[in-house]
Amino acid sequence: MKTRALFAAALSTSAALLFTGCNRTYVPQIAVQSLSDKALCEAIVNAGGCPVQLDPAKCSASSSWTSKDLGIPDACVLGAEFPDSVCLDHIRACNVPVMGENPNLHGIDSILHHRPNYAADIPQLVQEAALYHRARVFMDTHLCLDSHCDLPYRYKFGQSLGKRNLSQVNIQKMSEGGQDVECLAICRTNMKVEEDGYAKATDWIFGRIDKIEADVEAHKDYCAIARTAAEAREIVAGGKKAYFMAIENAFFLGDDISKVGLMAERGILYITLCHTYDNAVCGTSAPHKDGSPSTGLTEYGRSVVKEMNDKGVVIDLSHASEQTFYDVMQCSSKPVVCTHSACRDLYDHNRNVTDAQLRAIAANGGVVQVLCLGSFMRKDKANCSVDDMVQHIIHAVDIAGIDHVGIGSDFDGGGGASDFYGSNDMINVTLALMRKGFSDNDLAKLWGGNFLRVLEANGR
């Protein structure tokens, strides 16, 4: 189990006597610039909080990798002369609620995509701090899994699991946000069949598998590759991040069904049957350029479904047409997943699933992992936020049930919002769901429990 050390508080003896509330049951820890500001400290105590002195050295020293002692308070009162920028970066990256302004607060990530969680007054700040503490404790004591990101595509830009830069998913950001497990999807779009496209796509995928394995090996003190649900749990229990490997688009199979077994042997967890174009396996949800109707699972595709069931490779139906979806439902003997989709009854987009599909997933024993991508969630996609994602999660739960919904960000592949733009923002989803009344047991199912159950039902 993960643990979290409370933020270092250097209260003097007199201050400890003055703020006796700090010595009883836990109260939110509110960092202030100076404990000598008695008016501010008393206001915090009167609102139910505990003022603490920020320790920039500790905060800065624990600002990377998989440290569980994050060195952060539950909230901060900022001033223009608040401590060093590295400490502020860490506070911002971890989404700590704040009150007040500081010109350096936006330094850690793009100002466009990181909107500080401001509070208007001390009572609101203390309230936010209490919720933040509950969310942080949850994230630190439960396995939290995201079912889809496209980081492997970004290797061509020199990015890595060990670089906290423009990628949305990496070891450091996962630590900051409380995320434990990520599914690294290798997306290989269709290639020209007449130019040996199937073989080239297969070689490209094997090359990406090699790169993932090398990346994880280079950071083996902090992470490991998982092939099963049990391995993921074991890796996380050992204090590391766990990474599954997956393939997005079965185009590479061509007419060689034996590649399913080869990919299973290399550790591939799931295969998304198609991407934005039809392939030899099935039809896509994307509109055809010639206006022709969408297609479903081919006869060969039915054989692929059976082979995936037999080899323990999970079937992912995100991107698949409705006809493909229902064809798979008829012939799959194992539960399926939609690793990164949303709800069409909330926003009509071909990539989203209907209520009927949600019910079918539930009947199949599978799970729909809700993404956060503006163009799939609302008309004015630029204003997409965690609240939109949560609306889709709530709708999916209402229709399919709490046992058949999860979270699949689609980070590094288009996913993200103003307050959900990297693994360090995963805690914002937990906060939003807690505000809607979800229990810790519900959250544990959404944050990976349901997805891992489906893996186990597929022999993984």
Question: What is the element layout, followed by pairings?
Answer:
Blueprint: H1 13-18, E1 29-32, H2 38-46, E2 50-53, H3 56-61, E3 75-77, H4 85-93, E4 98-99, H5 122-141, E5 145-149, H6 171-177, E6 181-187, H7 197-218, E7 223-225, H8 229-237, E8 241-248, H9 258-265, E9 268-272, H10 299-311, E10 314-316, H11 322-331, E11 337-341, H12 355-364, E12 367-370, H13 374-377, H14 386-400, E13 405-407, H15 426-435, H16 440-457
Parallel strand pairs: 1-2, 1-3, 3-4, 5-6, 6-8, 7-8, 8-9, 9-10, 11-12, 12-13
Helix pairs in contact: 5-15, 11-12, 14-15
Write up this protein.
Helix content is 38%, strand content 12%. With 460 residues, it is α/β, with parallel strands linked by helices. The strands form three sheets. Strands 5, 6, 7, 8, 9 and 10 form a six-stranded parallel sheet that branches. It has a four-stranded parallel sheet with strand order 2-1-3-4, with helices on one face. A three-stranded parallel sheet has the order 11-12-13. The protein is elongated and about 75 Å long.
Low-confidence stretches: 1-24
CATH class of the largest domain: Alpha Beta
**Number of DSSP E strands:** 13
Total count of domains? 2
Our Rg estimate from Cα atoms comes to 23 Å
Number of H/I helices: 16
- Briefly note the structural class of the backbone: alpha/beta
Task: Return the average pLDDT rounded to an integer.
Answer: 88
CATH topology of the largest domain: TIM Barrel
What proportion of the residues form beta strands (DSSP E)?
5-15%
Structural shape: elongated
The end-to-end distance, rounded to whole angstroms, is: 22 Å
State the major sheet: 6 strands, parallel
Helical residues, percent? 25-40%
Tell me what the CATH architecture of the largest domain is. Alpha-Beta Barrel
Order of helices and strands: HEHEHEHEHEHEHEHEHEHEHEHEHHEHH
Query: CATH superfamily name of the largest domain?
Result: Metal-dependent hydrolases
